[in-house]
TrEMBL record, chain B:
Localisation per UniProt entry: Membrane
Protein keywords: Membrane, Oxidoreductase, Transmembrane, Transmembrane helix, Transport, Ubiquinone
Family under the similarity heading: Belongs to the complex I subunit 4L family.
Enzyme Commission code(s) on record: 1.6.5.-
Name of protein: NADH dehydrogenase-like complex subunit K
Highest taxon listed in the record's lineage: Archaea
One Gene Ontology term, aspect cellular component: NADH dehydrogenase complex
TrEMBL record, chain C:
Membrane topology: Multi-pass membrane protein
GO aspect biological process, one term: ATP synthesis coupled electron transport
Pfam families reported in the protein's UniProt record: Proton_antipo_M
Gene Ontology cellular-component annotations: membrane
Native source species: Natrialba hulunbeirensis JCM 10989
Protein name per UniProt: Proton-translocating NADH-quinone oxidoreductase subunit N
Membrane-spanning segments: 6-28, 40-61, 88-108, 120-137, 143-162, 174-195, 215-233, 253-272, 292-313, 320-339, 351-372, 393-415, 427-447, 470-490
Domain NADH:quinone oxidoreductase/Mrp antiporter transmembrane: 137-443
Keyword annotations from UniProtKB, A to Z: Membrane, Transmembrane, Transmembrane helix
Primary location group: membrane
InterPro entries, A to Z: NADH-Q_OxRdtase_suN/2, ND/Mrp_TM
Length: 149, 101, 506
């Protein structure tokens, strides 16, 4: 773990001039296009143009939609597994080196990760059995299912 | 001009201060969570910048762990905020005062 | 000699057993998710924590972690020095395991009708795993991860009574302050890492001793200050103590016992380890320009005074115990305040003894509150009036806990405070020693007030006979017996504590 990173030498000003020029061009092109179209286009005010989706659906309600709380569970499970992949990363980096070296046996490099994933799987299995991914039913749905022969 | 480690520290301190400011001024529990995330990420910037500076990787690996823990913290926190909303019909952290402060 | 042939990681068995038991609980619950066999769950939890306790005691007796010069098997490093198993670690693993076992047994009755049994017990075990790992963590990385592993289940446990407003409010405040303090803590770690380039405690110390951190004195100082903030949260000391009264009052009483005993002890063990291993007093002082023990001297005095004065004004028994728990954190902080370049073994050992005795007497006191909540007698001192006639055994145990907490000789609480007092005097901290005496005298007032209410006062209302829940009674009686048994056993405990402290400071 004693690699030394070297900071790239960016003291020369030329690089920065190029970056600045690129940024300038990047801003000027859209602004220029907007300015040209503003000067050229005819002005025909009409109410239908102000609609959110011209000749499309008429939007209803607010942009702030409330999601069903049951998505919370799904999101939570996703979040856990999504983030745990981050912990696989340092392991994956050293994995090939460790396999090739004689100092570390395959069990020593593979074992901890298998254990880690196993623990996660036990958790997932538990959550599944507890019905975390099951869509809860409204009382009415439960009733109709209950009355079904 | 070189981007030295001190710039990263300044950036992370600014981020940390923003997070702290958010915690002290916002009453919404979700805003509070976001502010805490900012503070944790400020620490991550520090860790990675210092790992680069010192030339060892332990800081970078620790940053990965911090990210995972931050996610876990959010998961638990959202659950508690959900309970807060169910019991008090609000996510304002100053609302629950059934006990004397 | 069979012990030596085992791989080094097996020395972490006390913590690993707790984790394994938590997994077993998950599997049990996966097999029958709808069954409410709380006996099986509580029994498994208690068995797991007792196994952890047994292994830790066995290791300690077998000399694992004792330095080889003292005839032991040497301090054992695990996972490239990320963990270390020494006497300090085993000592605190024992405290955690004992408290977990008591809490599990008591919860059997307290959580009887609760919907989330398996979740409750596995969260308790996961938190205990975190605390046990905190005892052995030897690098800022593992310390932070173990700390979070202990904290996250605790947040959930405090607010597990989902429809109880107090529980949710306590959990929320605990979580908010916990999240804030962990953010501050990890930022402090990043600054210490920046100043020294290492996260492993001995390596940090080596850099500081070599004087290489001197140019970054400011960063290091700020980092240390932020680390103190993290410890203050976990140990419920000033300035991050606000959560404690709310969380302890709102939480189910066994959880209050768990947090105020085991969690506090675990917070102290990382504070002890970090400050003795990573920041040698004299060299750190020359790098940051100020002695870090100064911070602990101030914190100890402020914490114990604030805790005790606030406790004296309470009418709610649980809240009184919560504030008194803050006061006891102040006593234990003397252990860090008294460390100096050449000494401090006695005072640090005394703080460890205090946390050990506290593990029994405070857990017992909170479990009595759990019993009272189980009976539904009410929460204030008046509501407790005259309980002694109805439930003499439990109330006798309560008297033992209260007098031990107050530090009446010859109970265990007296001896640990006595050692703290002499240790503080030896370290030249006369103000701290005086504050300790004054606060102990004050604490006698509110502790004896509870005993008086239970034994002497006439009951406000006539009560029917009180039930005798087996689990709660068993836990309370065991805690009381252990508090008393510590009288003859205090010598060995004190020796172990001082040995562990000496090994740390050597």
């Amino acid at each position: 773990m004693c690699m030394r990173f070297k900071l790239p030498n960016v003291t020369e000003m030329n690089d920065w001039i190029a970056i600045g020029a690129l940024a300038l061009v990047g801003v000027l092109i859209p602004l220029g296009m907007m300015a040209v179209s503003y000067l050229l286009r005819p002005s025909v005010p009409e109410t239908s143009k102000r609609a959110t989706y011209e000749s499309g659906e008429i939007p209803t309600g607010d942009t702030r939609v409330r999601f069903n709380i049951q998505y919370y569970m799904v999101a939570l499970l996703f979040l856990i597994f999504d983030i745990e992949t981050v912990l696989l990363f340092p392991w994956a980096v050293v994995y090939l080196d460790a396999v090739e070296s004689d100092a570390v046996s395959l069990l020593e490099i593979l074992g901890p990760m298998v254990l880690f994933v196993t623990i996660l799987l036990v958790g997932l299995a538990w959550a599944w059995r507890k019905g975390a991914v099951q869509w809860a039913q409204t009382p009415r749905q439960v009733e109709t299912e209950h009355n079904r022969p | 001009m070189t981007v030295g480690v001190e710039h990263y520290v300044l950036l992370s301190m600014a981020l940390f201060a923003i997070g702290l400011f958010g915690i002290l001024t916002r009453r919404n529990a979700l805003m509070f969570l976001m502010s805490v995330e900012l503070m944790l990420n400020a620490a991550n910037i520090n860790l990675i910048a210092f790992a680069f500076y010192h030339g060892n990787l332990s800081g970078q690996v620790f940053a990965l762990f911090t990210m995972a823990l931050a996610a876990a913290e959010v998961a638990v926190g959202l659950g508690i905020i959900l309970l807060l909303y169910r019991n008090f019909r609000d996510v304002d952290v100053t609302v629950p005062t059934t006990m004397r402060w | 000699m069979a012990l030596l042939e085992l791989p080094a990681w097996t020395t972490l068995a006390p913590a690993l057993l707790l984790a394994l038991t938590a997994l077993v609980l998950f599997i049990i619950d996966s097999i029958s998710p709808d069954a409410q066999n709380s006996g099986l769950l509580a029994g498994t939890t208690a068995a797991g924590s007792l196994a952890s306790l047994g292994v830790a005691v066995w290791y300690l007796l077998a000399g694992v972690g004792t330095p080889t010069v003292d005839g032991g098997r040497g301090i054992i490093d695990v996972l490239g020095d990320q963990f270390v198993v020494d006497q300090l670690a085993l000592f605190f693993m024992i405290i955690v395991a004992v408290v977990t076992a008591l809490v599990a047994v008591a919860s059997y009755d307290y959580m009887e009708d609760h919907t989330y049994q398996a979740e409750y017990y596995s969260l308790v075990l996961l938190a205990a795993t975190g605390m046990s790992f905190m005892a052995a963590a030897n690098s800022l990385v593992t310390i932070f991860i173990a700390l979070e592993l202990a904290s996250l289940p605790s947040y959930a446990l405090v607010s597990i009574l989902k429809d109880n407003r107090g529980s949710v409010e306590g959990g929320l405040k605990y979580f908010l302050i916990g999240a804030l303090s962990s953010a501050i803590f990890v930022y402090g770690i990043s600054l210490v890492y920046g100043a020294t380039g290492h996260l492993q405690l001995e390596n940090i110390a080596a850099v500081i001793e070599a004087g290489e951190a001197d140019p970054y004195g400011g960063l290091l100082g700020l980092g240390i200050l932020m680390l103190i903030g993290g410890f203050a949260f976990k140990t419920a000391s000033v300035p991050f103590h606000f959560w404690a009264p709310e969380a302890y009052e709102g939480a189910p009483a066994p959880i209050s016992a768990f947090l105020s005993s085991a969690s506090k002890a675990a917070g102290f063990v990382i504070a002890f380890r970090v400050f003795t291993e990573a920041f040698p007093v004299a060299e750190t002082a020359s790098a940051i320009g100020v002695d870090w023990t100064l911070a602990f001297i101030i914190l100890a005095i402020v914490t114990m005074t604030l805790g005790n004065f606030a406790a004296a004004t309470q009418n709610n028994v649980k809240r009184m115990l919560a504030y008194s728990s803050i006061g006891h954190a102040g006593y234990a902080l003397i252990g860090l305040a008294g460390i100096s370049a050449g000494g401090g073994e006695l005072v640090m050992g005394a703080a460890m003894m205090h946390l050990f005795v506290y593990g029994f007497m405070n857990t017992g006191a909170f479990l009595f509150v759990a019993l009272a909540e189980y009976w539904g007698v009410g929460r204030t001192f008046e509501d407790y009036n005259g309980l002694g006639r109805r439930a003499p055994v439990a109330c006798f145990a309560l008297a033992i806990f209260m007098f031990s907490l107050a530090g009446i000789p010859p109970l265990g609480g007296f001896w640990s405070k006595y050692f703290l007092f002499t240790g503080a005097l030896e370290a030249g901290l006369i103000v701290v020693a005086a504050a300790l005496v004054i606060n102990s005298a004050l604490s006698l007032y509110y502790y004896s007030r509870l005993v008086k209410a239970v034994w002497i006062e006439e009951p406000v209302t006539e009560r029917d006979g009180l039930s005798q829940p087996v689990g709660l009674y068993a836990a309370i009686v065991v805690a009381a017996v252990m508090t008393l048994a510590l009288l003859p056993l205090f010598g060995p405990v004190a020796d172990t504590a001082v040995d562990a402290a000496t090994a740390m400071l050597a």
